[in-house]
Amino acid sequence: MKKTLQQEAPKSNPLSCVEIIARMASDSLLSEEFMKNVKFPARKLAWYLESNQMQAILFSVICNINFSHRAVGIDRIAEWLGCTPIAVAMHVNELEGLRRRNILRKVPGENQYESGTDTSIASICYDINPEVFEALRMGEKFVKAKICIRDNFELIKAVAGFIQQRAEGQIDFKEMEREIKYILTENSKMEFLKELNRILLTDKERILFLNLCDEYYGGCTTSNLPSMVKLVTSDKREQMSMRHSIASGYSGLNHSDLVECGEAGFRNDIEISLTDKALGMILKDDPKIVIDKKEIKMPDVMISEAIQEKKLYFTPEVQERYSEISELLLPANYDKLVKRLRKNGMKTGFAMLFEGPPGTGKTESVYQLARLSGRNIFQVTISSLKSKWYGDSEKLIKNLFDRYRKLAEKSEIIPLLLFNEADGVFSTRKTKGDSSVDQTENAIQNIILQELEDLTGILIATTNLMENLDRAFDRRFMFKVHFGKPTTEARFRIWQEKIPFLTDTAALELAEEYELSGGQIDNIARKCTMHRVLKGKSPVRMQIDSWCTEETGVKEPKRIGYRI
What we know:
Elements: H1 5-8, H2 14-25, H3 32-37, H4 39-49, H5 53-66, E1 72-73, H6 74-81, H7 85-89, H8 92-100, E2 104-107, E3 125-128, H9 130-137, H10 152-167, H11 173-186, H12 191-197, H13 203-217, E4 223-224, H14 225-230, H15 236-247, H16 252-255, E5 259-263, E6 270-274, H17 276-283, E7 301-302, H18 316-329, H19 331-343, E8 350-355, H20 362-373, E9 377-380, H21 392-410, E10 416-419, H22 436-453, E11 458-463, E12 479-482, H23 488-498, H24 504-513, H25 518-535, H26 541-552
Parallel strand pairs: 8-11, 8-12, 9-10, 10-11
Antiparallel strand pairs: 1-3, 2-3, 4-6, 5-6, 7-9
Helix pairs in contact: 2-4, 2-5, 4-5, 5-6, 5-8, 10-11, 10-13, 18-20, 21-22, 23-24, 23-25, 25-26
């Protein structure tokens, strides 16, 4: 005897109802007879889902299909029911009702375009929220979890969650805005939101700002402006308007000093980041997660405290200039001099050129000057200033000086701007300038010349190839220091300093026999250390002579007198 539906449907497990409904719905055409026969399990499941009967039926069909297909579209539901897609499409409102209650999730179709911009009816696909399935498996009623907001961090993460759902296609832009508005309204008594609401921002500017805050929590101190704008609106005209207003400094976010912009490295992309004011707003309620923006490690900034002390040995002439510059860069002296220059209507920028053969201490001198004066170093990577895109190199150069100015404005002590191997960008201008490459190179030189003319900080350039520098740079450098190879006396002291186990006699002989630079002697000192670690003893004199010969490239060293 065939069991009745009441006997077949168990009392304790709603998943049994799902299985029964889906089995009965197969090839049912959603007929009147089917709707009549499925009434009991559909009502029972509807109680667990707090839905209507049709929603319980559609849920059961999608749940079964979901085990073999992640994305369940109208076509798959129609195939299960044995009807046309149009017949199912008539019930899309029921599906959307389940989605709004987070029972179903809207997902990209399996064959949807990679761009994610497919808006055809074939792209409407769903899957089951795993939390709903788990509740039914446990025989419990599904209740949409309430978002608990305790601090700024949880508020921002909740907002970002809806932005992420929109990005994944689970909700549309209107639903995203509605959900975010609800969260902000429910938590309007938070000090952070009170302060934010006093600022005149549009809804989309507010959403963009909160998403930027979430990016910061995730460790991104800068974000791509065009990408951020696309997350808050799908309207192309509105995207263009937002990009232009923020990049130009006209938006409410700019006027309220919440964001700052700078050009990124590819074409016309724009970097956007939070200001110190914005960071103060979002981080002040929880000292455990406060990140001081000044302590963020920038890959191109060397902190003065991290520079190790090294002894430098110069000729008397270089030592005199080095001491003069070192005294000038001491904060008290520098500040006093800048005030006097400004009062007299003179330029306050200081540009210096350190030139000479490799290994003569040019770069190390800059490091030690920074250490002694407590100044950080903004290091320029020359390769990062060259782009294959026409016009980008000029933008990168301008952006470099803009970044240095901003860093100088926010620093208690003006940092040094270091152009190492400066001949890479300070090279001689082309006379013809016919090709696009020549035009770009000349444009770069003109920009740098103008920036040096308007400099308000401290720039130091080093080069091994003085002859490659454009003569127009000469008068822009207040100090020009030639670092020649060390004298015999200086080499003697360097040998003693770098390799302490040498006797004074051996150090003097090496200084007299080999005209090495400080950098070359440093290389030999490192080889000595390596030898002692690997062999367990110091290298003999013959081995050191061999290394000296390798450094000079000369087969036989220059001998003075006799070796004893």
